[in-house]
């Protein structure tokens, strides 16, 4: 009777595991198609191409709607697969492995989603801000100077957004901050040199 109960529980566990994977797969496929349909209908692809990140995604061979649908579906696939493994390992009393899998889902996957959304939103807002800088002047000489400053600001804000996103996603950014210090100083010096050379060229041209 004891073995029968064990086999019965094992069958239930395997059934729940398989069902979790299947539900996750079907949900991922349906949500991917829904995202693709909705974003395409509202003209999201054309709007998103105005931003640098949208152009980068387009160069990778995906439209914005395809990209976001693909990312969402793979998050669902991975989450359902890890949850299925969590159910299986928990029923087999592999508590350490089960807790580790649950931590991956609750901390790292959720953290990735938060970081991804922050990066996308931050890059869009950054490009919008830089666009206003370019529109603030119509003189060609001023635009040449503004281009250097604007692109420098774009890179600096991008870096700030990435660091903030990773931090909010639950990752330690202490080592990253140390690595970014010389890069930021190098970019700052390069920007100052470019601006100084442009000013000298304008003065000499007059």
Description of the structure:
The protein has 206 residues and is mostly helical. 89% of the residues lie in helices and 0% in strands. The chain is built from 7 helices and no strands. The protein has helices spanning 2-41, 44-48, 52-59, 64-91, 95-135, 140-168, 174-205. It is elongated, with a radius of gyration of 25 Å. Residues 1-5 have low confidence and may be disordered.
List the helices and strands and how they pair.
Layout: H1 2-41, H2 44-48, H3 52-59, H4 64-91, H5 95-135, H6 140-168, H7 174-205
Helix pairs in contact: 1-4, 4-5, 5-6, 6-7
What would the average pLDDT be, to the nearest integer? 82
Strand coverage percent: under 5%
Biggest sheet descriptor = none
Give the low-pLDDT segments: 1-5
Report how far the terminal alpha carbons are from each other: 99 Å
Give the overall shape, derived from the CA principal axes.
elongated
The string of secondary-structure elements, in order, is HHHHHHH
Strand-pairing-aware structural class: mainly alpha
Structure annotation, total helices: 7
Number of strands: 0
Q: How big is the Rg?
A: 25 Å
From the structure provided, what is the oligomeric state, counting identical versus distinct chains? single chain
């Amino acid at each position: 009777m004891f073995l029968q109960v064990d086999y019965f529980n094992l069958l239930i566990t395997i059934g729940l595991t398989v069902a979790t994977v299947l539900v996750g797969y079907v949900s991922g496929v349906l949500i991917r198609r829904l995202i693709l349909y909705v974003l395409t209908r509202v003209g999201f692809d054309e709007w998103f191409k105005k931003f640098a990140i949208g152009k980068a995604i387009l160069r990778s061979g995906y439209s914005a709607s395809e990209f976001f649908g693909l990312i969402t579906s793979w998050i669902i696939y991975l989450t359902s697969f890890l949850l299925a493994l969590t159910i299986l390992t928990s029923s087999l009393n592999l508590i350490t492995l089960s807790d580790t899998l649950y931590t991956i889902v609750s901390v790292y996957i959720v953290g990735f989603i938060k970081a991804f959304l922050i990066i996308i939103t931050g890059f869009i807002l950054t490009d919008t801000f830089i666009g206003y800088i370019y529109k603030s002047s119509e003189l060609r000489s001023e635009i040449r100077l503004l281009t250097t400053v604007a692109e420098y600001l774009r890179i600096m804000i991008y870096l700030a957004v990435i660091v903030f996103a990773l931090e909010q996603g639950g990752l330690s950014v202490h080592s990253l901050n140390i690595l970014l210090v010389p890069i930021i100083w190098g970019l700052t010096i390069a920007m100052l040199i470019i601006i100084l050379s442009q000013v000298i060229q304008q003065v000499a041209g007059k």
